[in-house]
Amino acid sequence: MAKDEWVIGVIGGSGLYAIDALENAQSIRVESPWGEASDELVIGEIAGKRFVFLSRHGKGHHIPPSDLNFRANVDVLKRAGCTDMVSLSAVGSLREDLPPGSFVIVDQFIDRTFARAKSFFGEGLAAHVSMADPVCPALSDRAEAAAKAAGADSVHRGATYLAMEGPQFSSRAESELYRQWGCDVIGMTAMPEAKLAREAELPYALVAMVTDYDCWRDETADVVVHDILATLQDNAGKAAQTVAEFAKALPDERPANPLDTVLDHAIITAPEAMDAALKTKLDAIAGRVFGER
User: Fold this and answer.
1) 2 lies in a domain?
2) pLDDT in tens, 136-148
3) Residue (of 161, 120, 119) closest to 140 by Cα position
4) With a threshold of 0.90, does the pTM exceed it?
5) Is 214 a catalytic residue?
6) Cα–Cα distance for residue pair 197/204, rounded to 1 Å
7) Which of 43, 74, 171, 239 is the most exposed place for a label (fewest CB within 10 A)?
8) Catalytic residue among 214, 234, 252, 264
């Protein structure tokens, strides 16, 4: 792969389990030292650019949020040569002006998950990446333009995503609390996905598809899966078209991105003190840095 070639990893959430626009598509199983990824990778081309698609919940949507192997999912995308990562996720709305059917380009997160492995690093090899600005603004610009070109009914740029553990939906008290915090949408899968993408030096953008109002809204019935699925079906076609439009607008050459090298100043453990086994597991995630030491 050329240094300036785009390879876009796309993780499809609830309702998006394939991208028909992929040409010359082939499915491959990529092994990861972090365990099993959610599904096979589907690798192909759209508008002459290479794309790698992964169904976040697996075929048939059989993996609930807390059981997702987020580390393996990000690791296999990195092993497949991905340079950037676009996430498509279903969310609930915490704002009146973000009705079901809206597409939201998220730029901030509040992580309320508690039962998930959140880092590739750990005892024996410590690293601290910045999450002050969790998404790539340039990639998010492209995602916003693509959603508009795809004909999404309403596209909103900039939002705070509350990541909850699930799998249950919010209580009314929780929903009202998150609104007081200034959160705009709520979901179960963006964390630790965005954190792991940053550790993997993959610029990340999130297109959130609003399926329902969360339960804070008195004039709306409580959240039920049946209603969410109906909106998901409406959104799925536009989500797939968003990916196609995203591909069409990519320039031929990928410019260097500051997020490509975030590990340069993040790994704090001295080389002689690094755990050898963990360093081996990090070959795809941090091999670039280890190779330069």
Assistant:
1) no
2) 999 999 999 999 9
3) 161
4) yes
5) yes
6) 7
7) 171
8) 214
